[in-house]
Write a structure and sequence with these properties.
This protein is α/β, with parallel strands linked by helices. The protein has a single domain, classed as Rossmann fold (3-Layer(aba) Sandwich), CATH 3.40.50. Helices cover 31% and strands 23% of the residues. It contains 7 helices and 12 strands. Strands 3, 4, 5, 6, 7, 8, 9, 10, 11 and 12 form a 10-stranded mixed sheet that branches. A two-stranded antiparallel ribbon has the order 1-2. Pfam families: Methyltransf_25.
């Protein structure tokens, strides 16, 4: 069963009956689970795959040594399918809050499970049992296994007019210290752009225990959890087109412009509804600011970062 939320502005209308369905769960997740969202996730997955040079996984895994892999928050199963294809002899489990839609043929080594991974008491999620955990839950990885997370931050950056080369902004490896201290050469080529909608969304998500700026903090958490051989790669996720972009960056730019007014109001309204009526005025102010944000996107060279972080659990 799913909850529904009326779409009360034209910016958030996505279905013929003007409603979006959501996971019927107490989990801190504010995006829908309907067919419209499935289509968005499929497109997003394909575009990120192309942006990352036609690959998903970055962990240096030996295919012959992977017998069990887990995709947490598998959505439409796009990454689960990729993992099962790369490791045909492995048992691959995809877990999500809602049933996985049948958008592709399910490979024989895939098992899908519905539920909050934090609450599932299942022998298939034993500690120290997975060679690869994609997303989170470090405790499930076995000694020598790899944990890989792909996370973006909602912080928006602008490339000033005096920056003529995008060299440092292209996909690059980055150290933990550089990420934590914003000291990579690419950080000198961009400026942070604050927005009201972002501040309010962050406030609402914090009530759920969610940090939308978690990406640069993950490597330090990996270290604290005892992971070793930590690798970080950072990709620019353009919000709008500008001169000098690659074909893959242009595709991402078109996607973000097309979906910004579509999904962001939905997420904001759901977060505001969950927070309670005392946050309704702030929620409405954030929704109005999204329209200003959309205008800014069309006028400058703006982007967010998406980080890939890999770490190995010690033997």
């Amino acid at each position: 069963m799913s909850t529904v939320l009326p779409a009360t502005s034209t910016a958030s209308r996505s279905t013929k009956d003007d409603v979006r369905t959501f996971h019927d769960t107490g989990a801190a997740y504010v995006l829908p689970n309907d067919n419209v969202e499935h289509q968005r996730l499929e497109l997003q997955s394909r575009l990120i795959y192309e942006l990352m040079d036609n690959k998903v996984l970055h962990s240096p895994l030996d295919q012959s040594h992977v017998s069990k892999a887990l995709d947490i928050g598998c959505g439409t199963g796009a990454v689960t399918h990729e993992m099962a294809s790369l490791f045909p002899n492995a048992q691959v489990i995809g877990a999500d809050l809602s049933p996985v839609p049948e958008v592709r043929q399910k490979l024989p080594n895939i098992t899908y499970m519905q539920g909050n991974i934090l609450d599932v008491g299942d022998s298939r999620f034993e500690q120290n049992s997975f060679d690869l955990v994609f997303s989170r839950l470090l405790v499930l990885a076995k000694p020598g296994g790899w944990v890989e997370m792909h996370e973006l931050s909602t912080e928006v950056y602008n490339i000033p007019d005096n920056v003529t080369s995008l060299e440092y902004l292209r996909p690059h490896a980055i150290t933990i210290d550089q990420l934590a201290n914003s000291s990579h050469p690419s950080d000198a080529s961009s400026n942070r752009l604050p927005f009201l909608w972002e501040a309010i969304l962050n406030k609402l998500l914090a009530l759920k225990g969610v940090d939308p700026h978690c990406a640069p903090k993950i490597p330090t958490l990996f270290e604290a959890a005892g992971l070793r051989d930590i690798h970080i790669k950072r990709y620019m996720f353009p919000w709008g087109r500008w001169e000098g972009q690659t074909r893959e960056e242009q595709a991402i730019a078109d996607y973000t412009v097309a979906t910004t007014l579509e999904i962001m109001p939905v997420a904001l309204r759901k977060a505001g509804e969950d927070a309670g009526p005392e946050y309704s005025e702030e929620t409405e102010a954030a929704l109005k600011d999204i329209e200003r944000f959309q205008q800014v996107l069309s006028e400058g060279r703006n982007f967010i970062w998406i980080c890939v972080i890999c770490g190995r659990k010690p033997e």
